[in-house]
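Hello,

Our lab assistant flagged a job as stuck in the queue for most of the afternoon. It eventually completed. Since we weren't sure the result was trustworthy after the delay, we are filing this so someone can double-check. Below is the sequence as submitted and the structure that was eventually returned. Let us know if re-running is recommended.
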Amino acid sequence: MKMATISTPMILKPEILRKTAFLLILLTFLLIPALCCAAGLEIPGVRIGLDDANGPQQVSGIMQIIFVMTILSLAPAILILMTSFTRFAIVLSFLRHALGTQQAPPNQIIIGLALFMTFFIMQPVWQKIHTEAITPYQQQKISGDELIERGTAPLKEFMLKHTQKSDLALFVSMSGKDKPQNAESLSISTVIPAFVISELKTAFQIGFMLYIPFIILDMVISSILLSMGMMMLPPVMISLPFKLMLFILVDGWNLLIGSLVKSFQ
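-- returned structure --
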């Protein structure tokens, strides 16, 4: 009587897998140009280099390109730290945790809603920047330094309006400079961190107020389950539908978004 043999799958070593992946990537880069040439497709050439400048105008153009690329790389940080995006994103995250819905709404929805609400709130500020700074600069009526000064003035005014005095005093004292006569004379490097701290403080205060009704509901559900002897049943599983029903009955999205928008007006 012959014994049945069971074939075991061959296990490849990590080194063999790495070498195989490297060979596949190398073959891909070698075969794609050959296939394109065989098919009659033209591949554009890419040239990267640094040439000698022929004059100050060319140097100025290069510096402008570098400046624009730097601004584009810092645009997400500018959008997050100098606008109302921080408050919206944190409050919406607190709402999701207070409801206990795990990943609903997902992060993409929260970031998208916070982003479009930021566009809605900051639209008057950006219109003012476009009218007072960008348009005159395009018409060559002001210089680049004046463009930066006029462009940051509306943002600075918006941040000072929503920054608490205690946070401004903190960063003024840490800067080691003399106490200014008014808040408008503060530098933008002092106003930005003070504004961020104030936004975090305000967002956490709103998040605390959001948690209170849902925590009370969790306590009520836990007490009822404990009195019924259902100690093994998770209270969160029972309280989640009641939280959603409460949030829907009070028209929570309208109330929350409306309150957040009014807090900036």
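-- support follow-up --
The delay was a queue issue, not a problem with the job. The result is valid. Residues 172 and 190 are 7 Å apart (CA to CA). The two ends are 89 Å apart (CA to CA).
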